[in-house]
Amino acid sequence: MLQTLLELILNMLAEASTTEISKKKNPKGIKENMIVAKEGGSVAGKARKDLEERTGRSVITGQNAKLLKNK
Hints:
Blueprint: H1 5-25, H2 29-55, H3 65-70
């Protein structure tokens, strides 16, 4: 399923945050990498919750991007 622009941006934020945290912590092995991934995802999660609180609507949709484009 394709995502909306905000969903993609938040995914990119999670990935970029994880990369930067990984550079600083230099994790070794799967367990340490999983911790870093959760930390990076937490950054995007906080941003999503803040945005949803400020706008009063969910960022996450169940819609396909093609359906959104046709609206």
